[in-house]
Amino acid sequence: MNLLMFLGGLILLVIGANTLVRGASKLAMSFGISPLVVGLTIVAFGTSAPEVAVSVGAVLDGKTDIAIGNVVGSNIFNVLFILGISALIAPLVVNIQLIRQEVPIMLGASLLLLALALDRRLSFLDGGFLFALLVAYTVFLVVQSQRETQAAKDEFAGEIQPAEAGAWDKHWAAQIGLIAAGLVALVFGSDYLVQASVSFAKSMGISDLVIGLTIVAAGTSMPEVATSITAAIKGERDIAVGNVVGSNTFNILGCLGLSGLVSGELGLAMAPSLLAFDIWVMLAVALACLPVFMTGREIARWEGGVFLGYYIAYVAYLILAAQQHDALPVFSSVMMGFVVPLTVVTLVVVILRPAAASEHT
């Protein structure tokens, strides 16, 4: 029964997000808003709608560990799993704007979350501050889009089409209906997903936090998975990367911002293990994007394989730690003493090789 509820909730979240994005995009374009602005705001944020619905719903149900674990786990999942899988399909192109602007903004949001979490609580004011930053960031993107090249506008125009004449969703009433239906599906889907996840955690003896960091995080990231993998297969490899980076920024500013606002005076309590390990993993993953993205401005297949391998190792660590398994000390020693240093050395060599080659030319 719990499995059916979880799958049903997941299906409702994916359908709700797609329906919401479709209705909101068509409605915005009916009012003359450009496809570029719609793509940068409604579509980009719409893929994170499941994370918002689940995190806010979990806070209202008093399950704050799931709310926070969902965001932190989703950000780790997005980079390591989604970019890893996408890069294995085809090496991913990294737009120069991502390196110069979007990745630093994602890093800044991650560092800000760490700073706000040091007192082991995300307060109502902290949530309001994060959400205000999201509004400012959105306004900045809209203003910046007015200076975009015609090529960028054409790219988004090809991805987001207005309702055709005579189409059933051309009228604003149908578009509002799509938005309402999407919201309803998100609300019910998040409720089913949270209830099933809590039941899973209790039956398996695993904490709400671990369930939030793994099962819930992966489940709510399904729209990002579909978008990035489809973009990689279609050859739109810069969209695959931009979708992940933008979603991570929105998760911190939007999901946790709204969660903090609805938490009231009590705020969101931060589990000690989250501060001791998982937020640092999220920050390390965000930091790893810069050197990887800068090496030839692409994510090679071998780098995608490393990302995917690290995600598998991260999940394995969480499961072993939750079960207090005898293999945990050996696993931790191998990762910290061999795998991580080897990866760091490899990245340093890859970064320095182009510089060394340029000196000899």
Write structural notes for this entry.
It is a single chain. This protein is mainly α and 361 residues long. It has one domain (2-325): A middle domain of Talin 1 (Up-down Bundle), CATH 1.20.1420. Helix content is 82%, strand content 2%. It has 14 helices and 4 strands. The chain has helices at residues 2-30, 35-46, 49-60, 64-89, 96-117, 124-145, 150-159, 172-204, 208-220, 222-234, 237-262, 272-294, 301-323, 328-360, and strands at residues 92-93, 121-122, 268-269, 298-299. The strands form 2 sheets. The chain has a two-stranded antiparallel sheet with strand order 1-4. Helix 1 packs antiparallel against helix 8 (172-204), helix 3 packs antiparallel against helix 4 (64-89) and helix 4 (64-89) runs antiparallel to helix 13. It is globular. The relative contact order is 0.20. The model has no long low-confidence stretch (mean pLDDT 78).
List the helices and strands and how they pair.
Elements: H1 2-30, H2 35-46, H3 49-60, H4 64-89, E1 92-93, H5 96-117, E2 121-122, H6 124-145, H7 150-159, H8 172-204, H9 208-220, H10 222-234, H11 237-262, E3 268-269, H12 272-294, E4 298-299, H13 301-323, H14 328-360
Could you give a short description of this structure?
The protein is mainly α and 361 residues long. The chain has a single domain, classed as A middle domain of Talin 1.
